[in-house]
């Protein structure tokens, strides 16, 4: 399997770069920039290296640097933004603040004929975001692109296969950015594009069948995408020796617990142990209104239930979890093994003794996890499941959580999602749901005065959930949802629509 190493220098697009490369069916791994040498690169068999952008200036004493041997290891290197400047700096060039200040946003790019710009017009648009630039080229390099404000928008040393671009090819604002990355990955690095999900599944199943022979594995099944895909993948490897504990805390959406049990347990044959604990959780939440306190109580109670069920199963060798690659990157464990020594994972207590942790999805991004799930035969409604908070509907009920409030919210949420699904909501919105506010208001039903709950509807559009825009849904859709909620659900007199973006608001209300 060909692979590209993405060295992280603190830029906001490090994961995006890796995802762009993986979209070409070439495996890309993100690692911190420190401690990696040219010898490491050669021994690991990387076909190429990409230096990411970053917020620092390369000439500052505390800015992140890379080992200069990376440029002489005989492996192609592409530097992006800060990485471009660092490459020039390490090779003996000069970096200085831009004469006219920072260059930010869409910028006209003028390129010279070069393998990096194959099938890229001589004039195109790129995305710039920098305050420094390469003032003096290192020996052996030549300029291959410029903008009105940057004389060295790209450079190369073709003999050593070293390339640098001041702009960001990984973002969509650079019109031919994917072509530039494609040229580097295939034409410069010689990759074959052999990172295929079917191969990942077969390799993983074969590997875990050998590694976990005779062992019992416990997995905490939330019903979310990651844990569901991990469960089905491990089930294919070890069958009934996988025990999936599904703690149903009574805070799930309408029909969700039954759907998880039916799909994974009955249809796909996974060993699912569903623990119905709604009364237990509601009792702990009685009188609690503060959101963070709700979260703490639910998390603690989940652990207690999980511990009790694990104790009933006898000796368990390994704990499985649905860790995915962004989790690994963010926790700084890019070089950890697939099965590693037990540590305090996901809030589980140290008193639960396991011989190791199994993380079958730790090399995948979320979109790749969904692809694996589809190829494993998991239905679309589970694989494409919207993000759902760990505490469930408890943080969508404003104020104290009660069985009656949960009834109202489940029904209202189901109606709204049903109407949006009919209108092809998943293609328009990244997430949509209902919130039961703590506001009551007067209404009129059947010529009589009513005094009931207010339901808020929320729908957002986003690529990364770091920022989000409220979705401009058609008035007719909102009218239909409002009419159904107030007519079909006892206790609701008013429906409102949340038109606040993130920031200043968050996607969830609590």
Question: How is this structure best described in words?
Answer:
The chain has 15 helices and 21 strands. The chain has 510 residues and is α/β, with parallel strands linked by helices. Strand 18 (431-445) and strand 19 form a beta hairpin. Mean pLDDT is 89; it is low at 333-347. The protein has helices at residues 14-22, 38-44, 82-90, 177-188, 197-211, 225-238, 256-267, 278-285, 291-312, 325-330, 366-375, 380-383, 403-422, 425-428, 475-488; strands at residues 3-8, 27-32, 48-51, 77-80, 94-97, 103-111, 123-130, 132-136, 142-146, 154-157, 162-165, 217-220, 242-248, 272-276, 318-320, 339-340, 356-358, 431-445, 448-461, 469-470, 492-497. It has three domains: 3-188, Rossmann fold (3-Layer(aba) Sandwich), CATH 3.40.50.880; 197-383, Rossmann fold; 396-497, GMP Synthetase, Chain A, domain 3. A nine-stranded mixed sheet has the order 2-1-3-4-11-10-9-6-7, with helices on both faces. Strands 14-13-12-15-17-16 form a six-stranded mixed sheet, with helices on both faces. Strands 18, 19, 20 and 21 form a four-stranded mixed sheet that branches. The two termini are 44 Å apart. Helix 5 (197-211) crosses helix 6 and helix 8 runs antiparallel to helix 9 (291-312).
